[in-house]
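Researcher: Please predict.
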Amino acid sequence: MKQVNAYVYFENGCFMQAQSFGAEGTFVGEVVFNTALTGYQEIISDPSYAGQFIAFSMPEIGIVGCNPKDMESRGVFAQGILVHHYSSFVSNFRASQNLGMFLKEYNVMGLCSLPMRKIIKMIREEGAMMMIASTEINDKEQLKEILQKKPQIESLHLVQQVSTKKPYYHNKGTFCFDTMDFSTPPTNKKIVVIDFGVKNNILNNLVNAGFSVEVIPYFFDAQELIRRFENKEIDAVFLSNGPGNPSILHNEIEQIKLLIQSHVPIFAICLGHQLICIAQGYPTYKLKFGHHGGNHPVKNLCNETVEITAQNHIYSAPDSIVAIADITHRNLFDGTIEGLLYHDKKIFSIQYHPESSPGPQDSTHIFKEFMAMLQ
C-alpha cells in the first residue's frame, strides 16, 4: 500500500513529519496514549475515543488485520492513530482486511514512522493535548493557525455523535472460540442500557450475566423508565461508557438524579460512573493524561485482591464521594477511585472496563455480581 507524507503539529508547538496509511485529509483532536499490547481494532472502534487521536506504545501494529466480529461499535469515531511501525501484511485467519483499508473505510487517519517514545513521554510530562494532522498541509504555521481556531475537546458534545439514534434489543452473549461465534445464553432479568457510546462487548457481557438488554439513546426520559420499573417491566438501568466531558451533559445529569431519587437499581461503567457522581453533587476532575490500556492494576477493596484491567478514561471521581458511597476499587498506579457502591441504594459503578475487549478478563465477574445484587 502506497504511503504519503503527513504532517503533525501538537498544541505545545512540536512539529513532526509522518507517513499516512489511513484516510487522507486534515484532522484535529486530542491526543492520548494507549499501553495495550494487543486488540488495536477493539481499541480504535471504542466510541469513548471520539474526538481523539490514539498514540500506541506498542511499536508494531497491523499484523492481526481487522474483521467485523471484533468491532466494538457501529463505526470508528476516533480521529486517528499514531504508531511507530505499521504492517500492511496480515497474518491471521480471522482477518478480512488490513488495518490501512479498515481506517480508510471509516475515514480515520493512520500515521506511522513516528518517534512514539518521544511522543508518549511528552504526553506524560505535559498532559493530553490537542493536535492536528494533515496530508494536505505541510506548513507548521498554517497548521498552528487551524488548530488554534478549533474548540478544545472539553467543550464538545461528543455523545450525540456516538449514541444510537433509536432503541434496539441486543441478544448476543460473549464470543465463543469453540464455535467462532457469539453465544445466546438464557436471560431472566431485563435491563435498559442508556447509550452514551456503549461498547458491544459490554452488551454481550450483560446478556451473558442473564440480562435481557434493551438499548436506548442518551436523551432518555427518566420518568418513563421509573414508570416501567414500578410496573415491573424492567429490573434495572445501565449507564454506559462514552466520550468527552461528563459535566456538559446537563439534561442527562438531571434525568439521572430522578432515577437515583426513585431508587431504580443502576449499574454504570466509565462515563456513566462519572455522571452518577456529578448527579449527586460531586464533580469529576480531568486527569493529566488519563488511563488508557490493558495492563492497569486495580485493587478490589472488598476482597483484597488485585485485578489487571482494561481502561479508557481521562476523568475521575473525587475522594470526597466517600460521604455517600463506599470505595470498592482503587487504581494502584495513582490511587484514583475505580469503583463505588452507594449507601442505602442499589447503585454500583466502576471506572474501568470489566468487559475487557481488548484486555484481561479478571473483572468480568462484576456483571454477575450486579445480577446477584438484584436477586
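Model: Residues 354 and 363 are 5 Å apart (CA to CA).
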